[in-house]
Amino acid sequence: MIDLHNHTILCNHANDLIDEYIEKAIKKGIKIYGFSDHAPMNYDEKYRMSFDDMDMYENWIDKVKEKYQNKIKILKGYEVDFTPEVDKRVIERNVDYLIGSVHFLDNWGFDNPEFLSEWTKRDVDDVYKEYFELIEKLAQSKMFDIVGHLDLIKIFGYRPKEDVKVIAKRAIEAIADKKMVVEINTAGIRKKVNEAYPSVELLEMIKKANIDITFGSDAHSKAQVGFKLKESYELAKLIGFKRVVYFENREKKYKKL
Fold first, then answer.
1. Which of 23, 117, 124, 214 has the CA that lies 20 to 30 A from 64?
2. What is the value of pTM for the model shown?
3. Which of 175, 125, 171, 132 is nearest to 152 (CA)?
4. How much is the pLDDT for 45?
């Protein structure tokens, strides 16, 4: 199994030590495990590492990569917020992969429970359209390897009246055009929406568009490592996916599902 989306204490909202994550991954039978902590930016600093932390973070990963080399393959990445101005200091880092994610619509952190009340002030369909327009731009930017939690916008269970497949169509076409990878992220099963990102209906569109997939448990603690990963593998097989992707030095590598 492959699990590429995982965090560390440097993001300021995760628990446990890196070694504890890895030991749990080994016990779960995960063969390729990636850290992709929240990259720094000059906004929302409370929930991410600082630019000064980047060398330390990467050194941590390099050390455990060597320490556990005979037990598990460790990869190094960042989860990068796609905003109008993505900092080149992150994009230019020497890592295995970059996950591009959308967590903000303008200055609204729509997935943060602190700002949940904002949902009641907005039209849900408009929010979804704005979100997937940003996902489309994220893909078109060609800065990232993986699209993080494709339909994160559903996190609190708000659903559009319009068919989400119609709303997400252009974004999925852009992902396919730029040959990006979509992760099946199991964190949504731990949230109010109670389903993985993306939904089955969007996964079926992704399969039809010949987009490759990978997997991430989005762990913020050792207890969440590999969460519902086996079930997600089975779902991917059921939909018809035949392979899973990981990255080394920003290059795609493939494993059979």
1. 214
2. 0.97
3. 132
4. 82
Scored b (16 or more CB within 10 A) or e, 42-79 reads eebeeebbeeebbeebbebbeebbeebeeebbbbbbbb
For tokens 């320490």, the residue is 67
Tokens of 27: 């016990």
How do 146-147 and 108-109 pair as beta strands?
unpaired
Tens of pLDDT, residues 108-131: 999 999 999 999 999 999 999 999
What distances in angstroms separate CA 4 from CA 27, 75, 181, 219, 238, one per listed residue? 16, 8, 12, 10, 21
DSSP string, 52-67: GGHHHHHHHHHHHHHH
The residue among 251, 242, 229, 183 whose CA lies nearest residue 31 is 229
Q: Which of 86, 54, 72, 23 is nearest to 219 (CA)?
A: 23
Per-residue tokens: 128: 């979804």
The kind and range of the H/E element at 3 are strand 2-3
Whether residue 29 is predicted with pLDDT greater than 90 in this model: the reply is yes
Q: At 222, list the tokens.
A: 């050792």
Nearest Cα neighbor of 248 from 65, 75, 62 is: 75
